[in-house]
């Protein structure tokens, strides 16, 4: 149910979709009343300085302006309700040349001979959906947010997948889901292609999972199974809990365990991975303190489809997930909300992550570390209300790759809800 089009057609196709949607809406109560239309204007700058002498260039720097359109319709009346979702986006290069490509904000063209960032790119995708009671079947292009498959929305345009999934909330606090994705469009691509892990390609990602929330919604238990057919299989169990201790004081914990190995024809070779992850927090007034602990065991690193986010791991960060084979890592993090000081909308995050015991080709134990700061502000009133501005500053050093870098990012997101 998805059609790929060049950037020059993206806006016109999105407009056509809106017009067609308006025509259908006029004929179906519920379909139009519950429709949500959101447009996000995103301005994104990344400046990255490479410090490793083995890297042929000393920087990667790009700047883009993008528009992202999301339309989620309501459902037609009747025992089976039908609807349509649309996701569309267009990004334009504002700055960036052949010597500064590779931030992930734009596709890289002529990678083998003269690599340089594309001047623009865009996407248009749609999905149809059907709803019975509290169960929804969706087929087409979408952004899954599953612990075993998280679409990455960390650059100009979000990553999307093509396939189908069914999700049920018919059983109280129990959520059940299953599905299959056939192709993948990473965040810096304008095409739909097969998925991969460590060089192994596949056009089938199958999954099933469920989460049960109880204890006045303070506790969630999840169990998931996934298969990138003929590449890897993976299981995941998770427990998340929030425990209030007093007014404005609470303890939080998010603990997970992944186990995986090769699947079928083993197109990425023999695989063996166990990954343990725990993020523990103390909320105290305007501050939240976190301790992240993570351990990767087995002969291979943590498994995920190419381009996806590592957000299921405790120590995932802006530039690294600390998920190499054998790696043991820890994190200290502090979040602060300035609202208590009379500055609502202003927040700051600081964290330090250290990893060691990384398996290397020479047999030695490699090390790496990262330091990151994020200062963010959301405009509270006026014509620019909800404009979110972020400045991210980070450093990363590693003994096991050539990614030593210092980096700055400036991100402006201006969301506008058109209607509902």
Automatic annotation (TrEMBL):
Q: Which UniProt keywords apply?
A: Signal, Transport
Protein family per UniProt: Belongs to the outer membrane porin (Opr) (TC 1.B.25) family.
Q: Which GO terms describe its molecular function?
A: porin activity
Q: What is this protein called?
A: Outer membrane porin, OprD family
Residues annotated as signal peptide: 1-28
Q: Name one GO cellular component term.
A: membrane
Q: Which organism is it from?
A: Chromohalobacter canadensis
InterPro entries in alphabetical order: OM_porin_bac, Porin_dom_sf
